[in-house]
Amino acid sequence: MACNCMAATTASTMRWPSQAASAGSRPAISVATIRPMDSAREVVQTRCMARKACCMNEMKRLKTGIRLKTLQTGRTPLRGGHHTTTGSLKNRKLIMKDTYNLQRFVDAQQPLFQQVLTELEAGQKRSHWMWFVFPQIQGLGRSDTARHYAVTDLDEARAYLQHPVLGPRLEQCAGIIAPQVERSARQIFSSPDDMKLHSSMTLFSIAAPERPVFQKVLDTFFGGERDAMTVNLLSR
């Protein structure tokens, strides 16, 4: 039916030159001017453009959905249906790029950190962990253990605080003892670990003044004063 209609339409619109001249109508349309291949090409191009626009809209919709999902959950979808927490990649990079060998602190703390928290909450240090829980600046300790866990400079101290495990743990420990105003540092840590606490909190309060918990420990146990030897070593 469609073919017959098209044939009829073509027949009605096409006239031979002699017929057109006799009829006195518009100039005749030459058969040579009808190019069905061009029309077919235009149809194909139109369809391709429509498909391309549809694909682009679908990609935009998917990207918008991914962004919304990331904002809602804090996780970015990866290939294969897996997800990654937004902050975990940054933490992984910090761990992989361990310029200062901070892993030595993680390894030392791992077996007994829960015990450290228990002792601090009880207000009485009983076991040996001061070197790697409250690190000091290099140059204060003389033993092999003290030198092994010494922090070389402010850059290492800041890297320590930015570490995804060590930084939060140090703030947690400092936060436990800061409110214990009824006891002295010597009563909690004994000597000379009370002096190690003084030097450690001085180091990290200077390295990160925007983290107030270290200064709070100095306020509670040392009248807000910094350890002079630590300040001197940092100024060299």
TrEMBL record:
InterPro entries (UniProt xref): DUF1810, Rv1873-like_sf
Name under which the protein is recorded: Calpastatin
SUPFAM superfamilies in alphabetical order: Rv1873-like
Lineage: Bacteria, Pseudomonadati, Pseudomonadota, Gammaproteobacteria, Pseudomonadales
Record organism: Pseudomonas syringae pv. apii
Superkingdom field: Bacteria
